[in-house]
């Protein structure tokens, strides 16, 4: 690791999986040393002098760029919240396999990079092009059946329309050069989508004329969609609307007959957060929380609620978010989502003393 994981919970050493203790939430921007890390394979060591990004596939004009060329392109700065699709997995019943994330496989950063649209424009996708595969330089063996023989790389695809709309190829995170664990030298930032789409250590961009069905698009990071005539396995995409409580944290002891500032963050991939509500009685009554700061597209919104604490006893606190398109959080969990897209209500149990 190129930064000390002092602020982070080590979920796995190899591959490296680090979680932010969500109770340490302290502002709109997650500092780089507190930002969660999710890796499937060993972190590739890449030197900028050997590194190239190739744009190929169903394009009229395939080409390669090096690190200096990417940095010399017209840049854009965006805020974007990344959340792992498996965030909150530890709370699933029955227990699910996979990294046991609590609340902290999420973070918000300011990213600087080149718009993917600019590279695509130069490569000129052919008329039948439908998707763009983002291919990472990290490789390894996966163990879900049917198991591919030999190593595969981490790669994901996007519809060409999304790739052209707002995807950033980022080389800076919160004003610093991207670190090895976050994808040095270049990573994708796919705003509004679960973070498996934001491929790190980019090496190739492949335009295709048919939907891609790679491992992380089908066997992994997919869910059962029942909106059509028959259930279909669909790759995960948009972030689901969610509010998380940073403080108090589970098991915290809170002073009775006092004022406590309940504090957290809320985000959505489908719209703006318009409302966060808090309940102190297992969801029987709800109180409007105050949304802090300004609404920033594709970034989380911090919120707070000044709580007059009751007399001593146990208390269950829940928070729920609603977005501008009316998406809210389900009370219960559907197994159609496998071990991903966990946004049902997750109450915090505390003691008032
Ligand atoms: N090449 C590559 N890109 C990747 C991954 C990976 O293992 N390899 N993990 C993905 C997943 S599942 C998540 S949640 C985010 C995590 O980004 P971070 O480590 O910068 O927080 O990266 C995504 N991009
Ligand atoms: Mo993830």
Structure overview:
The chain has 353 residues and is mainly beta. It has 3 helices and 24 strands. The chain is globular, with a radius of gyration of 21 Å. Mean pLDDT is 96; it is low at 1-5. Ligand MTE binds at residues 35-40, 82, 84, 136, 138, 154, 182, 195-196, 198-201. The ligand Nc1nc2c(c(=O)[nH]1)N[C@H]1C(S)=C(S)[C@@H](COP(=O)(O)O)O[C@H]1N2 binds next to strand 3 and strand 8.
Please summarize what this structure is.
The protein is mainly beta. Helix content is 6%, strand content 37%. The chain has helices at residues 67-72, 116-123, 160-165, and strands spanning 9-12, 17-19, 37-38, 53-57, 63-65, 76-83, 106-115, 131-140, 152-159, 168-173, 176-177, 187-189, 202-208, 222-225, 232-235, 242-247, 253-254, 259-267, 273-279, 287-288, 290-291, 301-308, 313-323, 348-352.
What attributes characterize this protein structure?
single chain; mainly beta; 5-stranded mixed β-sheet; 5-stranded antiparallel β-sheet; globular; disordered N terminus; binds the ligand Nc1nc2c(c(=O)[nH]1)N[C@H]1C(S)=C(S)[C@@H](COP(=O)(O)O)O[C@H]1N2; binds molybdenum atom
Helix and strand layout, with pairings?
Blueprint: E1 9-12, E2 17-19, E3 37-38, E4 53-57, E5 63-65, H1 67-72, E6 76-83, E7 106-115, H2 116-123, E8 131-140, E9 152-159, H3 160-165, E10 168-173, E11 176-177, E12 187-189, E13 202-208, E14 222-225, E15 232-235, E16 242-247, E17 253-254, E18 259-267, E19 273-279, E20 287-288, E21 290-291, E22 301-308, E23 313-323, E24 348-352
Parallel strand pairs: 4-13, 17-24
Antiparallel strand pairs: 1-2, 2-3, 4-5, 6-7, 7-10, 8-9, 8-13, 10-11, 10-12, 14-15, 16-18, 18-22, 19-20, 19-23, 21-22, 23-24
The structure holds the ligand Nc1nc2c(c(=O)[nH]1)N[C@H]1C(S)=C(S)[C@@H](COP(=O)(O)O)O[C@H]1N2 and molybdenum atom (MO).
């Amino acid at each position: 690791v190129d930064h000390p994981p002092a602020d982070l919970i080590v979920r796995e050493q190899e591959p490296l999986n680090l979680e932010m203790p969500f109770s340490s939430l302290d502002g709109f921007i997650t500092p780089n040393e507190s930002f969660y890390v999710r890796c499937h394979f060993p972190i590739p060591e890449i030197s900028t002098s050997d590194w190239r990004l190739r744009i190929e596939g169903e394009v009229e004009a395939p080409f390669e760029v090096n690190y200096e060329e990417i940095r010399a392109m017209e840049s854009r700065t965006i805020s974007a919240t990344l959340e792992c699709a498996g965030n909150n997995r530890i709370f699933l019943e029955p227990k699910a396999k996979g990294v046991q994330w609590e609340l902290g496989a999420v973070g918000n950063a300011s990213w600087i990079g080149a718009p993917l649209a600019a590279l695509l424009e130069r490569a000129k996708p052919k008329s039948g092009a439908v998707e763009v595969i983002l291919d990472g330089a990290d490789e390894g063996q996966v163990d879900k059946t049917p198991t591919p023989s030999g190593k595969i790389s981490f790669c994901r695809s996007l519809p060409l329309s999304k790739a052209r709309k707002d995807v950033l190829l980022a080389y800076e995170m919160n004003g610093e050069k991207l670190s090895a664990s976050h994808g040095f030298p270049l990573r994708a930032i796919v705003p509004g989508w679960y973070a498996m789409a934001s491929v790190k250590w980019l090496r190739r961009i492949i335009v295709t004329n048919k939907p891609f069905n790679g491992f992380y698009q089908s066997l992994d990071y997919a869910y059962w969609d029942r909106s059509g005539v028959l259930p279909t396995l669909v790759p995960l995409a948009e972030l689901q609307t969610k509010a998380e409580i940073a403080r108090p944290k589970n098991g915290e002891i809170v002073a009775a007959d006092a004022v406590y500032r309940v504090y957290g963050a809320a985000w959505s991939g489908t719209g703006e957060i318009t409302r966060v509500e808090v309940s102190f009685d297992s969801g029987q009554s709800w109180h409007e929380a105050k949304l802090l700061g300004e609404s920033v597209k594709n970034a989380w919104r911090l919120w707070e609620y000044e709580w007059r604490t009751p007399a001593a006893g146990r208390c269950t606190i829940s928070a729920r978010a609603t977005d501008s398109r009316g998406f809210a959080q389900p009370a219960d969990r559907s197994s159609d989502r496998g071990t991903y897209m966990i946004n049902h209500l997750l109450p915090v149990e505390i003691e008032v003393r």
